[in-house]
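Q: I'm a student working through a structural biology exercise. My instructor gave each of us a protein and asked us to get a predicted structure, then write a short paragraph describing it. Mine is Sigma-70 family RNA polymerase sigma factor. I'm not confident about reading structure output yet, so if you can add a plain explanation after the tokens, that would really help. Here is the sequence I was given:
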Amino acid sequence: MAQLTRDEVKKQEDFEKEIIPHLDAMYNFALKLTQDPDKAEDLVQDTIVKAFRFFDSYEMGTNPKAWVFRILKNSFINDYRKRSKQPNQVDFDEVSSFYETIRAESTDTSDLEDLMYRELVDDHVSAALEDLPEDFRTVVLLCDIEEFTYEEVATMLDVPIGTIRSRLHRGRNLLKAQLLEYAEKRGFVTD
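A: Happy to help. First, here is the predicted structure for Sigma-70 family RNA polymerase sigma factor. I'll explain a few features afterward.
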């Protein structure tokens, strides 16, 4: 087994110090983008590999979280584009097992109502976020969920800060419109 050079050891130490502390935030953002824990883990793993591979291009002293989030976002977009060109696939075993397990069950309606209500609210908010156009959703997630500054998001997405402000404003308004309609239907909003 070959010994690591002093530069390779230094690169590993710097990488662990700068990038690894952001793993949880990376996973949370990846989960919001992919809506799937397994895909989120794969996206984070792919991001870490790319970040280490290109760590020489990272400028020490700059914002490591913004740098690695940009890699994560670009990896997600590239994967999304690749998947969108592939035909839809269905797992036969999953479908057949679903039909085999369908059966009538009796459930206490009050517990079921409560469970459905809680899940419906969470699902509706998630669906509203997911329905946002990609550019708006990314900015809303980075600014409002991950709490990056406008400047950091502009750097990550490589767009002017004014574009970030505009996308955030429009994204929030789209969410507000979707959720206001939902709230009115459910009786949460009164005139």
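A: Here are two points you could use in your paragraph. The first helix runs from residue 6 to 18. Residues 103-110, 113-121 have pLDDT under 50 and may be disordered. It's a good idea to check both against the output above yourself.
Q: Great, thank you!
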